[in-house]
Amino acid sequence: MRQWEISPLDGRYRAQLSELPRYFSEFALMEARCNVELAYLEALDRTALFPPLSGEERKRIQAARSGFSEADFERIVAIEREIDHDVKACEIYLRERLALSQPNMIHFGLTSDDVNNLAYGVLLTRFRDEQQLPLLRSLIERLVACAQRWRAFVFPARTHGQPASPTTLGKELSVFVSRLVRQARQLELHRFRGKLAGATGTHAAAVYAFPEHDWLGFSEQFVTSLDLAPNPCTTQIEDHDTLAEYFAIVARINSIVCDFDRDMWEYLSRGDLRQTGAAEEVGSSTMPHKVNPIRFENSEGNVAISNALLYALADKLTQSRMQRDLSDTTVKRSIGVALAHSQLAVGQAARGLARIEADEAALRAKVDALPEVLAEGYQTLLRAAGANDPYELLRRNTKGVPVTRERLHALIDRLELPPSVAERLRGLRPSEYVGLAVAICDRVLADAASWLAG
């Protein structure tokens, strides 16, 4: 019922996150556990250590793998209420459903975390590939389109909040394209590690039952079959280091998105950019004129929550007392919360960018109204021409005083400069002083296009 919604993820933002229960709900986790158990059962059958499964038994296993239902989940929950152990409840349920002639094959030689860590690895891999990367890709594509459209729009730059050497809007957006593509590549290549080695990571039970079998090779092959990287040396639990590495990548993506959000907020507040408003949208309950940068603000807020959780998860999950304690199990149930807030942040940033407009003529006029930003170019050309301490000369004539082109030209007149140098200085306008901004933008966009096409 709606009144039982505690988290905004299940309430206000439910529609935006409608796909995420497939990866982070209790239902999804139990389904993944069952599928790990079933895949393990099939792999165990191929070892010929037990009498072979019959054709009917194999059919029942396949049906269980392809058809996990709400009724199946509720049956496991009912069993768990009686025995107070979720993975054992999964095993008992599978014994009931499969009705094998050799039911001891189910969960043979395993400990709970053999099932749990592999289930989480499978779910997170699927989430990364099916939801996280596509959404990040959509933000990058939108940034690329805007950077391409505005590649040569001269843009006012600020360092320490003060007017600085101009840039182009395309180049500034390309900074975020470059940063996000680098992290996207790392995210794409990341592999979660998986453990399948029994109660304290020694394969002791399986080896004791079948001492001649290659359990190390079997474990490695099985974990690899789940698209995970085998972790052969663990305690009872997988060490979660690759979870922490993954959280670090996601946190960096979040932080880059937040940096983008804040820059866009500043550009809008200064009037460098403007955003369109929907016809019926209300920006204030009392000020009718307002079009607020709410999507960037919403994104920034979700980054704060996501990163706080990701840092906490990375810290907690890489620690476990001795060979095992259970404090990680409740913590891991918040992984989906952290990643859901990240998805909201990325999605809102993309939605905010979709409503941004830039006026090339207005930007050029704004930049040309700041002749003081030419001080860098002037003193650097004067250095090249051999003038005496041109930096100090420009500092005395531009720092803390109103600067006009006439004041700069008067300074040129007082210097004994070669005519060609004086002519270059007189002809320089702030809107032309953008260096290789367009070429840098084009290079970044070409690299991004290569990743997007890959």
Summarize the structure.
The chain is mostly helical and 454 residues long. It contains 19 helices and 6 strands. Helix 4 packs across helix 5, helix 6 packs antiparallel against helix 7 and helix 10 packs parallel to helix 13.
What keyword list fits this structure?
454 residues; mainly alpha; Fumarase C, Chain B, domain 1; Fumarase C, Chain A, domain 2; 2 domains; two-stranded antiparallel ribbon; two-stranded parallel sheet; 19 helices; 6 strands; 62% helix
Secondary-structure element string: HHHHHHEEHEHHEHEHHHEHHHHHH
Which term fits the overall shape? elongated
Kindly estimate the percentage of residues that lie in beta strands according to DSSP.
Answer: under 5%
Total individual domains = 2
CATH superfamily heading of the largest domain: Fumarase/aspartase (Central domain)
Q: From the 3D structure, determine the CATH topology of the largest domain.
A: Fumarase C, Chain A, domain 2
CATH architecture of the largest domain: Up-down Bundle
- Helix content, binned percent: 55-70%
Summarize model confidence as the mean pLDDT: 93
What is the C-level CATH assignment of the largest domain?
A: Mainly Alpha
The main β sheet shows up as: 2 strands, antiparallel
